[in-house]
Each structure stands twice: as C-alpha cells, then as structure tokens.
Amino acid sequence: MKTFATLSDGNTLEAPSSIKKAKTKLGKIQWRNRNKVHSNRRSGISDLKCG
Length: 51
Description:
The chain is of the alpha+beta class. The chain has one helix at 17-34; strands spanning 5-6, 12-13, 37-40, 45-49. The radius of gyration is 20 Å and the shape is rod-shaped. The chain starts with a strand and ends with a strand.
C-alpha cells in the first residue's frame, strides 16, 4: 500500500505509521504460520512440515 488515501482533487495521504507497523507485524505472523513445524515426541515423529 503506497498511499493511504487519494482525495478527489488528486492529493494523496501517506499511511500512518501504526498501519505500516501493523502490516509488517501481520506479514511476520503469516510467514511464521506458513513455516510451522509440527512434531510429536511421544510417537517419535519429529520435524514434519505441515501442509
């Protein structure tokens, strides 16, 4: 997202830093979720990639 809003007269507003931080945090969380590794020590199953 390059601009937060574009007004009818053509002026653009930059996104507030809180939105930029939230978007960065969401990206990190999504990356961690995609790369999760599930294991089960009792069954002896380790390092199986999910999905």
